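Dear H.,

Thanks for agreeing to be a second pair of eyes. The structure we're designing against is below in token form, covering all 469 positions.
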């Protein structure tokens, strides 16, 4: 008999040790990834009461101060800026290490949440053991903790909110259900303030929750859920903006129109990035050119989107190449991307000299002249194999879920469809949105319970037809 609590605790401990080792061997002083780099600099200055990055505040985008310009282009980063400023106030020069450790604990928390979801829907013990192995053994999220950013923390908070929401809908007690619903809203609010793009996670889970309400004919609860979700989305934008205004002294402009991110996701600028639909400066240039006029920005972005769609539709061969290449870059290697982001880690000059790094003082995961290079090579091979197993298992698990749904009867618990629904929503979003493997990593993680189901089902069933010769 497998002792599941002991297995999960052991795997969590191993993941924690691997993550702490990776943080230690990185010796990150700052990240050269632009968003992380500038937010860290702004947080350092704000924590010291220095507002020079943001003042003088002027309307002319082309002449704005660096912080004013950045936050005017990306106002959705206000929540992460406030978090990093708070960590700088608390930990001083240890802010980056504190954020990395928070990311690591969040990564392990995500795995624990996935395992708890399997317990809640009463999946078989063998399947839960497989899930523990794949959830804690899928290390990209653990290794991504070295990136001083808010992705992993936001993911934990939003997944925790989803878990609590599903628990509240199963609870018959009105008071307890309301308390759980409130807790879910606060967790989701915190997560979206740190990483606003996780709105698709919220949307997927809320959709499943609404279906559950309709199935149980709880129409009042469905209406409350819809209004609460709308209020949550409004607060996730307004609360960090209010915090920024209180700290800096002026209000942020409206966010870039969503059409801008579609324009980026459908564009191809090989001089900027050889990967179709990945970041290019369309959005930034558009905002500066129109001086923050959202209506003009949307009109320009819409014309780009229509032009790109017309070009893709009129050239089906090119369209097939574009989307095949974009999907390949997005989904083939979230494993590689966790290492790629780690290579942006820059050490202090003292650490670089002590560890014999090059003049650029950057961390190279695959540097085979150093002992860590061989460890990272092994980790990379293991993660690559786990990623292939993840996709195969998820395909088998999805087939099993579909069979149960079509058979009727009890079938799978409604909550089991939440994460596959999240994956499907995110897959469609990033088909046309600005692409990055780092963005699709949470979607790969959301497949883990379905993959565990598929692997466990495959192992349980005899395969005489496959092997009998």
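And this is the sequence the design step returned. I haven't edited it by hand at all.
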């Amino acid at each position: 008999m497998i002792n599941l609590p002991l297995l999960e605790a052991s795997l969590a401990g191993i993941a924690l040790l691997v993550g702490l080792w990776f943080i230690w061997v990185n010796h990150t002083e700052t990240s050269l990834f632009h968003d992380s780099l500038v937010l860290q600099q702004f947080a350092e200055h704000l924590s010291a009461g220095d507002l020079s990055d943001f003042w003088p505040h002027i309307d002319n985008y082309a002449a704005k101060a660096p912080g004013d310009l950045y936050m005017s282009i990306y106002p959705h980063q206000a929540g992460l800026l406030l978090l990093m400023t708070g960590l700088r106030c608390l930990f001083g020069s240890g802010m980056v290490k504190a954020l990395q450790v928070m990311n690591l604990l969040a990564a392990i928390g995500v795995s624990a949440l996935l395992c708890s979801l399997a317990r809640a829907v009463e999946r078989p013990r063998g399947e839960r053991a497989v899930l523990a192995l794949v959830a804690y053994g899928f290390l990209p999220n653990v290794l991504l903790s070295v990136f001083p950013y808010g992705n992993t923390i936001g993911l934990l908070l939003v997944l925790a909110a989803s878990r609590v929401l599903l628990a509240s809908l199963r609870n018959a007690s009105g008071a307890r259900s309301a308390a759980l619903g409130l807790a879910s809203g606060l967790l989701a609010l915190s997560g979206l303030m740190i990483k606003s793009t996780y709105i698709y996670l919220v949307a997927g889970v809320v959709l499943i929750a609404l279906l559950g309400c309709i199935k149980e004919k709880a129409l009042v609860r469905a209406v409350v859920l819809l209004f609460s979700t709308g209020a949550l989305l409004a607060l996730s934008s307004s609360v960090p903006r209010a915090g920024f205004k209180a700290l800096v002294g002026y209000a942020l402009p409206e966010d870039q129109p969503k059409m801008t991110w579609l324009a980026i996701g459908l564009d191809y600028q090989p001089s900027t990035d050889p990967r179709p639909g990945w970041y290019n400066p369309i959005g930034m240039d558009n905002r500066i050119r129109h001086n923050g006029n959202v209506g003009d920005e949307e009109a320009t972005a819409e014309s780009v989107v229509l032009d790109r769609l017309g070009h893709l539709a009129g050239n089906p061969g090119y369209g097939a190449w574009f989307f095949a290449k974009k999907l390949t870059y997005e989904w083939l290697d979230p494993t590689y991307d966790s290492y790629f982001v780690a290579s942006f880690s820059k050490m202090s000059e003292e650490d670089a000299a002590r560890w014999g790094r090059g003049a650029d003082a950057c961390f190279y995961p695959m540097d085979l002249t150093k002992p860590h290079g061989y460890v990272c090579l092994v980790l990379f091979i293991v993660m690559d194999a786990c990623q292939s197993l993840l996709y195969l298992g998820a395909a088998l698990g999805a087939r099993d879920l579909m069979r149960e749904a079509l058979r009727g009867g009890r079938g799978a618990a409604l909550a089991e469809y939440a994460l596959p629904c999240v994956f499907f929503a995110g897959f469609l979003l990033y088909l046309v949105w600005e692409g990055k493997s780092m963005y699709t990593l949470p979607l790969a993680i959301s497949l883990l319970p379905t993959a565990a189901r598929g692997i466990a089902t495959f192992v349980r069933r005899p395969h005489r037809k496959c092997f009998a010769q």
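Two observations from my side: The radius of gyration is 23 Å. Residues 464-469 have pLDDT under 50 and may be disordered.

Warmly,
E.
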